Amino acid sequence: MKKILILDATLRDGSQGAGISFSVEDKIKITKALDAFGTDYIEGGWPGSNPKDELFFAQAKKLDLKSSKLAAFGSTRRKGCNAAEDKNLRAIAESGAKTACIFGKSWDLHVKVALKTTKEENLKMISDSVSFLKSKKIEVIYDAEHFFDGYKSDKEYALQTIKAAHDAGASVICLCETNGGMLPSDIQNIVRETRNVFPDMRLGIHTHNDSGCAVANSIIAVEEGCIMVQGTMNGLGERCGNANLCSIIPALQIKRGYSCVPKKNLEKLTELSRYIDEIANLIPNDANPYVGRNAFAHKAGIHVSAVERDSKTYEHIEPKLVGNERRILVSDLSGKSNVVSKAVELEMGLGSAEDVNKIMNIVKEKENEGYQYEDADGSFYLLTKKAIESFKPFFSLKSYRVAVEKDAAGNIVSEATVKLDIKGKEEHTVAEGEGPVNALDNCLRKALIKYYPAIEDVFLTDFKVRVVNSDANTAAKVRVLIESSDSSKIWGTIGVNENIIDASWQALSDSVEYKLIKGADKNTQKKKTKRKK
User: Fold this and answer.
1) For a surface tag, which of 89, 260, 469, 477 has the fewest beta carbons within 10 Å of its beta carbon?
2) Which residues, other chains included, contact 213 with Cβ-Cβ below 8 Å and sequence gap of 6+?
3) Model pTM greater than 0.90?
4) What is the 3-state secondary structure (H, E, C) of 178-201?
5) SS3 (DSSP) at 428
6) Which domains does the chain have, with CATH numbers?
7) DSSP letter for each residue of 95-138
8) In angstroms, rounded to a whole number, what is the distance separating the alpha carbons of residues 396 and 241?
9) Contacts of 46 (CB under 8 A, 6+ apart)
10) What sign has the CA pseudo-torsion 10, 16, 18, 23?
11) pLDDT tens digits for 418-473?
12) Bridge partners (DSSP) listed for residue 100
């Protein structure tokens, strides 16, 4: 099994994406997670460019990395100066990193326009920089920036630039598709031709996604002999992003038989992907291949029934190989197999075909009103329990009131009052919040917590509002989707109403009801198991 080196550039290239900003603490957390995953190289940042990256490398010296080599990023020396006097190269040498990843120009256009120097001086800049870092006992990975554009512009000169880096001692020459405009056939032909010229040179690939081909371009480069792939988790990066390692790693390892990370660690990929998004404060892309929530989601009844018989009919790999799971979506388009499979997934029993038909009819009626259960497993669970008459409410609403006050100074205060019937007792609570929904949430929790302490570890992770019938203008219905989580599970609930507050209340109360009823169901199952024993 041929080894492919993985260089993760999330901390450097990924942080250049719009809206991404990692603190030093964030970068340390991500470094530890990537090391645990088995990444070969972690590009930590550019120590010569900003104080934050310098502080990161200072703190990273204390890390006991098991799998990964930490790489410091930078450029070749400035024109007309000695490499030993270049502050960026000195910063790399002083960073404590045992590996450097430096970039230089391969495209004659950049030599003339960006560097404003000669081709000969650019070759010296490359050679001198690699030699200087090698003299400091630092491994050098050379990033040949804009190599493919440079190759098309002046093939001979582009090849001279990577030869200069190789001859100076670079361990890997990474061919960079910096503008992201190349198609797979471009990458294939140029990597193949470069390999023919330099058969003993260890090549890598670094691609961007401006034409939507970064993953394909990386894979085809490996098939043409590249032994290193550079990319980022979830494809984070400037403009349209970098090559997505969450797609590249499983594609190479599962489908092509290469070794990228330890086999047992591949099952941690989905968890790692979501962890990176959480730190980056991003909502995960549900359509992300391999690791997205919808990567193995099935909605059409024909698909579901086929997958139940043999998952290969509509799944290209087993979800568990990358730590993901199959999801069965229920909607007005669903067949009976969807409802039955969803019930199995949610660990609930359905008695008869009559129950299934009843649930299907309710779903269709509800979706006609604006409800949508694809991302609302919690609400679907409650709907099913009510349909088969096995639902016992933990509380009932008597009334609620929400007030929002804004004073002359611009301060806004939201206050909610809720009256509930809980186990035959009336609970009347008042709470404030950052907004009306937060105030309602606080009020609901305040009323329930002494009766049901299990809800203490439930918190909201996402809140979405969408207009259902926009043609009704201000009288339109709104759909509120709430994602909740506890220490072990994530679930979604939904509410629909012309009034956004009431739609939010429906979703909030469903969220708590789901948590409580799941706990009750588990306890009932435990008691049954004990009686059988």
Assistant:
1) 469
2) 180, 182, 183, 184, 207
3) no
4) CCCCCCHHHHHHHHHHHHHHCCCC
5) strand
6) 5-261 (3.20.20.70), 297-370 (no CATH), 395-451 (3.30.160.740)
7) S--SEEEEEEE--HHHHHHTS-S-HHHHHHHHHHHHHHHHHTT-
8) 48
9) 12, 53, 72, 73, 74, 88
10) positive
11) 999 999 999 999 999 989 999 999 999 999 999 999 999 888 888 889 887 656 55
12) 72, 140
Q: What is the pLDDT of residues 397-415, one digit of tens each?
A: 999 999 999 888 888 999 9
How far is 132 from 135, CA to CA, in rounded Å? 5
Three-class DSSP category at 176 = strand
Strand partners, 123: none
Within 10 angstroms of residue 423's Cβ, the number of other Cβ atoms is: 9
Smallest Cα–Cα separation from 388: which of 409, 423, 362? 362
Read off the tokens for 135: 């003299």
Distance of CA 149 to the CA centre of its chain: 30
Alpha-carbon span 441 to 438, nearest angstrom: 5
User: CA end-to-end span of the chain, whole Å?
Assistant: 48
What is the C-alpha to C-alpha distance for residues 188 and 220, in angstroms, rounded to an integer?
6
> Please, are residues 436 and 416 in contact by the beta-carbon 8 Å criterion?
yes
Nearby residues of 236 by Cβ (< 8 Å), 6 or more positions away:
10, 13, 14, 15, 17, 20, 242, 276, 280
State the pLDDT at residue 130: 98
Contact 422/447 with Cβ under 8 angstroms?
Answer: yes
- The one-character DSSP state at 251 is I
HEC-encoded secondary structure of 350-396: CCCHHHHHHHHHHHHHHHHCCCCCCCCHHHHHHHHHHHCCCCCCCCE
Tokens at residue 459, please?
A: 């918190």
